[in-house]
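tool=predict chain=A
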Amino acid sequence: MHFLLNILLVIQILSALAMIGLILMQHGKGADMGAAFGSGASGSLFGASGSANFLSRSTAVLATIFFVVTLVLAYFGNLRGGAAGGSVLSGLPAAAQSASAPVPAPVASQVQPGSLVPGMSPASAEKADASLVQSRTSSKPAASASR
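tool=predict ok
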């Protein structure tokens, strides 16, 4: 089953790349660049209007292949997901879910002086901590004290 999914994925990628190339090679109605690809000459490989038909038919065939392979991959992906129909993250083990849980912020009593600002000396960090504690314990809010 895994091998089949890989083959289908390779077919889808190759058909998408070929379709991009064919679309870029086509020229619009009345475009003069068609002569560069041989569609203007009657002695070319596909004839006077043969290359336009060949390119458009090839693009249609590749688009059909791409569409069918996409539907088959979606069907197999739905089968592999299980009948529960839950979230993608519901299949993760508990260790992986707890590893992505947010870490709580440290409490002010757990923070060592100078550890939050790199390059700050411990003496100036202690002064900053003392002024922070003093501003929190004062009766005035910190926002109105700075005005």
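Residues 69 and 136 are 65 Å apart (CA to CA). The chain has a mean pLDDT of 72.
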